[in-house]
Amino acid sequence: MYDYVIVGAGSAGCVVAHRLGEDPDVKIAVLEAGPPDDAPEIHMPLAFGPNLTSDWDWALFSEPEPGLDHRRNYLPRGRVLGGSSSLNAMIYIRGNRADYDEWAAMGLEGWGYDDILPYFKRAEDNERGASRYHGVGGPLSVSDSRSMHPVVETWIEAAGEAGVPHNDDLNGATQEGAGRYQLTQRDGRRCSTAVAYLHPAVARGNVDVLTDARVYRLLFEGERAVGVEYMRHGKLEEIRAEREVILAAGSYHTPQLLMLSGVGPADQLTPVGVEPRHELPVGQNLQDHVMLNFVCLTDKGSLISSATPEAFALYETEGRGPVTSNGGEGGAFVRLRDGVEAPDVQFHIGCLLLHEEFLGVPFDDAYTFGPAVVKPTSRGQVTLRSPIAHARPRILHNYLQTEEDRQSMVAGVRLNMEISAAPALREWRRADFLVPKSDSEADIMDFVQRRAHTLYHPVGTCAMGSVVDAECRVLGLEGLRVVDASVMPTIPRGNTNAPTIMVAEKASDMIRGLSPLPAEAVKEVTA
User: C-alpha angle 148/353/146, rounded to 5°?
Assistant: First the structure.
C-alpha cells in the first residue's frame, strides 16, 4: 500500500512526486504509460523534431477542425518519463500577470500573480541569478541559449524596425516586446522534470516508478478514490493509495481517465457505454494556442547546415553550439487587438525550415517565424471515443471560432509580414517559401486555414472552479486530485510548461497541508 499514487510522470507528476517525497515517512508510486527517458536523443535539444511521432510520443490527432479547413491536427504529447517536458522545445515562459490575476478574480483564492510568483521562483535555478522575478537553487535549470543563432538576433532587430521594442527578459517586469527565450536546459542539455525532479526523488528511496504502466480506470469505494487499475507487461493489476490518487496525465488523458471511470457528463458517457458515477463537466473548456509559420529560404545558413560532425563534438564535450538549439530560440509578445489589457499574440523565430505539421525534414537552409493567438476565446472539448481504455479520445479545439481570435490572428500575420520585409532581414531572405499571397484578410485566412496548427499547449479540461476546487480536489469526491495543465481555468499567455510546473509546485504544498509561500508584490509594467 502506498500513501499516494500519481498517474503520469510528466511535467506535473514528476514535480508532485519530488515534493511529496520530501517527507521520508511517505511512500509514493508513480505510474507512467511510456518508457524510461534513458535514450540520449531525448536529452539532445536539436533532436526535439525527430523525436516527434516516436515511441515517446502519444501522437494524438484532433477531430476535423472547422477553423483549419476541417484538417485533423497532429497533437504530440510526451509518453515517457518527463512527459511533454521530454519532448517539447524547452521554452521557459511563465505567462502574464493578467493571466493569474484573472484566476483570482474568478474566485480562486491564492492563484493571483503575487501568490504564484514564489512558486515559479522556488522551482527555478536561473543561471542569470536571483532577482525580484527569478530564483536560484531550485530543481529546474533555466538558462540562456548556448546556440545563439544569428538569425534570431536579426529577427529581433527587424521586429524593432516594425515597432516591437526589445525585451531582455520575457519573464520579468513586462512580458511585452521581442527577445530571446530562456530554456529549460542544464549545461546545454534538456532539463526535463524527470531530470530535475523525478530522478532525484527516486534516489531518496521512497518513490517507486512503474514505467510501461497504462492506467485503465480509477478504483472507488463509495465516493472515495482508493487506487487505480493498470495494464503492465500484459497483466491487468491494481495499486492502492492510502491517502490520495493524483491524476497528472495531462489535458487530454486526465479527462479521458476520469470519464472512463464514470466521472464526467452523463449525456456523453452513456452513449459510449460508460456507466455514469459522478456528474461533472470533465473534458469541457479545452483551450489551446493556434500558431502559423512563415518560411523564408536563406543563403546564410541554418541549423540544418550547422549540424556538422564538429558541432556534435562540441555538444558532447562542451554542451554548446548548434546541437544545443531548441529551434525556436526567440520571439515576441504584442498587443494587437483593440482593447486588450495584455498581449494577445506571441511570435516564435526558428533557425531552420519547419514546413509540415510534423515539423518536416529540412531540405534547404531557411528560417521559420510566425504568430500564435495566446489568449483565445474559442473553446473545445475532449470526449470519449469508446469505453476501451486504450482507445484515443476525441479531441476538438474549435480554433478560431470567434471573431476575437480571428482578429488577433489576422493582425499577427500582418505584423509578421512587416517584420519579414524589414530592412534588417533583407540580407537573410533569399526567397519566400511559405507565405500568404497578400495581406488581404481573405488571403490571410486562406493561408491560416491551410497551414495553421497547434502550438502544443492544451489546458482547461478539468478546470478549477468547475471540475476541481482551488486546491485541485475533484469536486464531490474524496481522495482524488488533478494536478496538471487541465486544472487551469483559462490559458496563460505563452508556452505552458513553466506554468504547469508552477501549478504542481503549489498543489504539492496543498496536498501536504503546508502553508502557502508568502505572496510577493511586484508591479507589472508595459513596454
Answer: 15
The reply to whether 457 belongs to the active site is yes
296 neighbors 432 (Cβ within 8 angstroms): yes
The pLDDT mean for the chain works out to 96
Q: Percent of the chain at pLDDT above 90?
A: 93
Paired with 135 in beta bridges are none
Q: How far apart are the first and last CA of the chain?
A: 54
Grid cell, residue 491, equals 490559458
User: Where in the chain is CATH 3.50.50.60?
Assistant: 1-143+185-288+381-393+457-518
pLDDT (average), residues 134-150: 97
**Residue whose cell numbers read 500582418:** 414
Give the model confidence (pLDDT) of 301-339 as tens digits. Answer: 888 888 899 999 999 999 999 999 999 999 999 999 999
Grid cell, residue 134, equals: 527569478
Distance (Å, rounded) from C-alpha 49 to C-alpha 63? 23
Task: Answer positive or negative: Cα dihedral of 259, 265, 269, 274.
Answer: positive
pLDDT, position 49: 83
Residues with Cβ within 8 Å of 110's Cβ and at least 6 positions away in sequence, in order, are 104, 470, 506, 516
Comparing CA positions, the residue from 301, 437, 291, 448 lying closest to residue 362 is 301
The per-residue pLDDT for range 153-191, each reduced to its tens digit, is 999 999 999 999 999 999 999 999 999 999 999 999 999
Question: Cα–Cα distance between 386 and 388 in angstroms, integer?
Answer: 5
Distance CA 63, CA 58 (A): 16
Every domain of the chain with CATH number 3.30.410.40 lies at 146-180+290-373+401-451
Q: Which numeric CATH code is attached to 146-180+290-373+401-451? A: 3.30.410.40
Residue 253 CB partners (closer than 8 Å, separation 6+): 8, 58, 77, 393
Mean per-residue pLDDT for 503-509? 98
Residue pair 461/430 in contact (Cβ under 8 Å)? The answer is no
339-378: per-residue pLDDT in tens? 999 999 999 999 988 766 655 566 789 999 999 999 999 9
Check: CB of residue 368 under 8 Å from CB of residue 352: yes
State the DSSP H helix or E strand holding residue 396, giving kind and residue range, or none if neither.
strand 394-396
For residues 196-216, average pLDDT: 98
Catalytic residue, chosen from 134, 355, 453, 457, is 457
Query: Which band of pLDDT confidence, cut at 50, 70 and 90, is reported for residue 1?
Result: confident
Degrees, nearest 5: CA angle 189-190-192: 150
* The three three-digit cell numbers of residue 44, written as one number: 539532445
Domain 1-143+185-288+381-393+457-518 fold is FAD/NAD(P)-binding domain (3.50.50)
